[in-house]
Amino acid sequence: MRLLNQIFLVVLISCLLGFVFQSLLGFYESFALFTALQIVAPFIYQALTRNRERVFSLENQINELIELNTCNVQCPCGNHTFNEILMVNEESIISKYPACNNEYRLIPSVRVVLTTEPVDLNKTFDELTIKKEQ
């Protein structure tokens, strides 16, 4: 029923627009043109909105990564702090702070911190469970 209503609306709108533009293109040509436009237009609109949503989601992901990698850096002159985006890789980051007009090299470092207790494979399961209960 819904499909029939939509087809009826497309035909009705095409007839009305065909009647309005019959002096320019002719009734049948206008009717065919506006029918085709009404059928194709939703597909174009959907494609544009999907691409816009994808771009917004990618922008949000990039902004989250930037927020995670932004760090407050104390200026060596001791008077200022500034935000810098630090990506941990093999290269250092050269930054220029406009308040001091000095150029700084930021060297990110990686430290390893043990967050779990290593398991001794020589112990049995019973010995490990007894240790956890105590």
Task: Summarize it.
By secondary structure, the chain is an alpha+beta fold. It has helices spanning 2-20, 27-69, 125-133; strands spanning 70-74, 81-85, 93-97, 102-106.
How many structurally independent domains?
2
Give the integer mean of the pLDDT values.
Answer: 78
The proportion of residues forming helix, as a percent range, comes to 40-55%
The number of strands is: 4
Helix/strand layout:
Blueprint: H1 2-20, H2 27-69, E1 70-74, E2 81-85, E3 93-97, E4 102-106, H3 125-133
Please characterize this protein's 3D structure.
A two-stranded antiparallel sheet has the order 1-2. Strands 3-4 form a two-stranded antiparallel sheet. Helix 1 crosses helix 2 (27-69). It has two domains: 2-65; 75-106, no CATH class. The chain is elongated. The chain has 134 residues and is α+β, with helices and mostly antiparallel strands. It contains three helices and four strands, in the order H-H-E-E-E-E-H. The chain has helices spanning 2-20, 27-69, 125-133; strands at 70-74, 81-85, 93-97, 102-106. Helices cover 53% and strands 15% of the residues. The mean pLDDT is 78.
